[in-house]
Amino acid sequence: xxxxxxxxxxxxxxxxxxxxxxxxxxxxxxxxxxxxxxxxxxxxxxxxxxxxxxxxxxxxxxxxxxxxxxxxxxxxxxxxxxxxxxxxxxxxxxxxxxxxxxxxxxxxxxxxxxxxxxxxxxxxxxxxxxxxxxxxxxxxxxxxxxxxxxxxxxxxxxx
Amino acid sequence: xxxxxxxxxxxxxxxxxxxxxxxxxxxxxxxxxxxxxxxxxxxxxxxxxxxxxxxxxxxxxxxxxxxxxxxxxxxxxxxxxxxxxxxxxxxxxxxxxxxxxxxxxxxxxxxxxxxxxxxxxxxxxxxxxxxxxxxxxxxxxxxxxxxxxxxxxxxxxxxxxxxxxxxxxxxxxxxxxxxxxxxxxxxxxxxxxxxxxxxxxxxxxxxxxxxxxxxxxxxxxxxxxxxxxxxxxxxxxxxxxxxxxxxxxxxxxxxxxxxxxxxxxxxxxxxxxxxxxxxxxxxxxxxxxxxxxxxxxxxxxxxxxxxxxxxxxxxxxxxxxxxxxxxxxxxxxxxxxxxxxxxxxxxxxxxxxxxxxxxxxxxxxxxxxxxxxxxxxxxxxxxxxxxxxxxxxxxxxxxxxxxxxxxxxxxxxxxx
Lengths: 159, 416
Description:
The complex is a heterodimer. Chain A has helices at residues 2-10, 16-23, 27-39, 77-84, 110-121, and strands at residues 60-68, 89-94, 101-107, 127-134, 140-141, 144-145. Chain A is α+β, with helices and mostly antiparallel strands. Chain A is extended. The two termini of chain A are 37 Å apart. Chain B has 13 helices and twelve strands. Chain B has helices at residues 13-17, 22-32, 50-61, 74-88, 103-115, 132-138, 158-164, 187-199, 256-269, 275-287, 289-313, 337-348, 374-388, and strands spanning 37-38, 98-101, 121-126, 142-147, 169-174, 203-207, 232-237, 250-253, 325-326, 350-351, 353-354, 366-369. In chain B, strands 2-8-7-6-5-3-4 form a seven-stranded mixed sheet, with helices on both faces. A three-stranded antiparallel sheet of chain B has the order 9-12-11.
């Protein structure tokens, strides 16, 4: 199971047949396991990893440190939910350290992001403070180096 | 004085007699073409892991730019000794039984030159890597080929050795896992060979550069066999297991007198392996195991993909258990290895290496390296299967007899 997940994490296009050959398993067995993993939400989705910069799309991303006061019974979860339900919010994580939540948001313009923070995020009850950092450049995302520059430089044929 | 016009006459006939590598011509052809997918590369498809590259940069920053001891950095020899002891239970004294060389290639050259005198014979498996025979010839010796074939899984057997031994035989080259076949050798087989070797008082030069890339069963280190430690020159390096081909660092391990003799040639011809590469090799041995295991796991998955692909396209291929090569049989197409590889390259832009480049016994086969991305492999197999359509039905018997290209007057096989 771990091996199937590793293969799919690396290349979601692999077919159950290819995976079956690679791992020396039955195709039907692989298909069954994948289905089960999808149902159990171990596999959350299959996405295409896009470099929008290269596609000529203007996007602004920001990382926002959010301090909140936890609530009785639900701790940080209720406030977190009020934040992560917004579609412009891409990632929300509870952190140890000087702040509580780290929120990644994406918008089309600086102003759009700024407005979101000041009007939507900062005004949520129990949010104590926010600190916004705009992303200037992505070097590596989810384990992938954006401009790798390490293409195959081997000679075409070697003994 | 005028410049001599005919340089040929100044060249040592022994050197003249060595045919250029058959891979070369093919290489020229392939490099001129665009859009070629190459399964012809004998090196890992990943670059050296970052922690190894980073340690080398640090060493440069700190000014490690000097010669090392002729033997190589003691720290590296200690790591090599530890690695061999941990992996195979063979113990070598890092002070005088290990020599760090410029790739395993240099270690091979030194070992053969140290053993062989003019007129001596050395047993070399066929097919095998392209360097063994030329190095033996340069040492003045005569290569004698042990013809392995698919029937015995491309393994040398005790019987073959026994049959080929003459009073002139000095050494046996073993090279498993094997390039180009991907064959490994069974332990039982090695044990029998060891008995023959002891009986005839031979030395084994064991090139185990692909040892870590063993997918079925476990690699048996020749010097770990009973009584073989003192009859074996063990050659290995970092190129394949740690994706460090261009660094050129390898080693020989063996009897201290023999290593001292090898070191003599080494100190006068090479002095020492580059310190930068040696530092990187230390890092590889200290912290490279987890990454190496992951890489081997990946090769194994691709190995299965490749076998499946050949079976689907109707090319018989024996199961390679090591290295990163598959060696499918193409004789059913009626083409020679060379013609097959050339036509495949011209028509489908897929580069493979003709099996005949590795010896007469390689005729009728092609070497396909699966050190390539899954995407490239998949596309290459699609093209190959198109190429084979219409060709496989001919089923003509090969008209080129095996062994035709095998032995030339100089005692070295013609590599087409």
